[in-house]
Write a structure and sequence with these properties.
This protein is 27% helix and 21% strand. It has 13 helices and 18 strands. Strands 3, 5, 6, 9, 10, 17 and 18 form a seven-stranded mixed sheet that branches. The chain has a six-stranded parallel sheet with strand order 13-12-11-14-15-16, sandwiched between helices. The chain has a three-stranded antiparallel sheet with strand order 2-1-4, with no helix packed on it. It is globular. It starts with 19 loop residues before the first strand and ends in a 17-residue tail after the last strand. 48% of the residues are buried. This is Crotonyl-CoA carboxylase/reductase. Keywords: Acetylation, Cytoplasm, NADP, Oxidoreductase, RNA-binding. Its EC number is 1.3.1.85.
């Protein structure tokens, strides 16, 4: 007789989909710090529709987007979906993961039940007019972040994805490692190699903000891999040492400077002088690391408001500041004289295409990238791990949680963090 509900880690017969499942759930009446917002509940198991795949989740990655989900700001993702006519009054987050294909919907041809897969976080409507006319799906009007803007992410026993989100799991990685890099890795890959005319080439200096984080860890390796020169910005010596071990040519401690934030008004001579002292001070640090007076060809940005003025100032003539987030704020000031007179480029970049995701998987399969998993905990720790990220006390590299995978030795695999 088919069971209605299985315990976390209890494996149903392959292909048997129980009616109910355990999930780490956010609800509107719990919005607030992540440790308060996430609660384990029993909900209905979603069913795979046309083009969709139901995955038995072994492990899930931790990312900042579900800090925002738990806070209910800058977007109440539950209310947003309800305005679109979707019925669920809860949110199941998780925008990357690893697991086993458990059921497939009509029209699915490239994965089958039993396949071991890693999951990516971009979703779009493949039948949308802009995509059919040749638009990159990442910039389609239908593009959304799975497990953030969309529901039924990887923080549950089963998750629901579109077929193109599934990629072969690198066999040499643990479930936890495999779950940890498929958001940060492809995002960094697209930032560095996805923008024609400003891709990393051998010998190019690349400045990487937050070098010890998940995105920075991937970026340092990717720049080094093609012969570029990664320079990481960090907040302490432990994180600096971590970045150097990954391959950074040198590091800059941002706490040695205090000019961060929005640009002063043009008429504020004292404020402008203070900004220039700080920005030029970082430029001198870069020259010291390189041993010559050179500027970064690419600046990999995601911190936003506090750092964007400095990034644009430091970027080389004809170079690019490429940004995928705004963790310090969304108001990015730019001195337009630096932008137009030096032919610099400010480029937004949001996740990656399926091709770019597969290229990252191939690099991981070849042993050319390390997932940099520094922390792995259990299903019940999803809230506390997001709380660490919210409080900026999380370890270096990428983090994951085990869902249905056994704990075994998963916590200690991968490049260890130093903080």
């Amino acid at each position: 007789m088919t069971k209605t509900l299985y315990g976390i880690g209890e494996t149903p017969p392959l292909g048997e989909v129980p009616a109910r499942m355990y999930a780490s759930v956010i609800r509107q009446d719990r919005f607030g710090p992540p440790k308060q917002a996430f609660r384990t509940e029993v909900v209905d198991t979603p069913r795979a529709g046309r083009g969709q795949v139901l995955v038995y989740v072994m492990a899930a990655g931790i990312n900042y987007n579900n800090v925002w989900s738990s806070l209910g700001t800058p977007v109440d993702v539950i209310a947003r979906r309800q305005r679109l006519g979707l019925p669920e009054d809860f949110h199941i987050g998780g925008s990357e993961g690893s697991g086993v294909v458990w059921a497939v919907g009509e029209g699915v041809h490239n994965v089958k039940v039993g396949d071991h897969v890693v999951l990516t976080g971009g979703q779009w409507d493949e039948s949308a007019e802009d995509i059919r006319l040749g638009t990159d799906p990442v910039v389609s009007t239908t593009m959304e972040a799975w497990g953030y803007e969309n529901n039924y992410g990887s923080f549950a026993q089963f998750c629901l994805v579109d077929e193109y989100q599934c990629h072969p799991k690198p066999a040499h990685l643990s479930w936890a490692q495999a779950a940890s890099f498929m958001l940060t890795g492809p995002t960094a890959y697209r930032q560095l190699f996805g923008w024609h005319g400003n891709t990393v080439k051998p010998g190019d200096p690349v400045l990487i903000w937050g070098g010890s984080g998940g995105l920075g860890s991937m970026a340092i390796q990717l720049v080094k891999l093609v012969g570029g020169i990664p320079i990481a910005v960090v907040s302490d010596e432990n994180r600096a040492e971590y970045c150097r071990r990954l391959g950074a040519k040198g590091t800059i401690n941002r706490r040695e400077f205090d000019h961060w934030g929005r640009l002063p008004d043009v008429g504020d001579a004292e404020g402008s002088a203070h900004f220039l002292r700080g920005a030029r001070g970082i430029g001198k640090k870069i020259w010291e690391i390189l041993g010559e007076r050179r500027s970064p060809r690419i600046v990999l940005e995601h911190s936003g408001q506090d750092t964007l003025p400095t990034s644009m100032y430091l970027c080389d003539n004809g170079g690019m500041v490429v940004i995928c987030g705004g963790t310090s704020g969304y108001n990015g000031d730019v001195d337009l004289r630096h932008l137009w007179m030096r032919s610099k480029r400010l480029q937004g970049s949001h996740f990656a295409t399926p091709r770019e995701c597969r290229e990252v998987v191939n690099l991981m399969n070849a042993g050319l990238l390390d997932p940099c998993m520094s922390a792995c905990e259990g299903f019940e720790d999803i809230g506390s791990m997001h709380q660490m990220m919210h409080d900026n006390v999380h370890p270096c590299g990428n983090m994951s949680v085990l869902v249905n995978a056994a704990h075994r030795d998963q916590r200690t695999l991968g490049l260890p963090a130093l903080a």
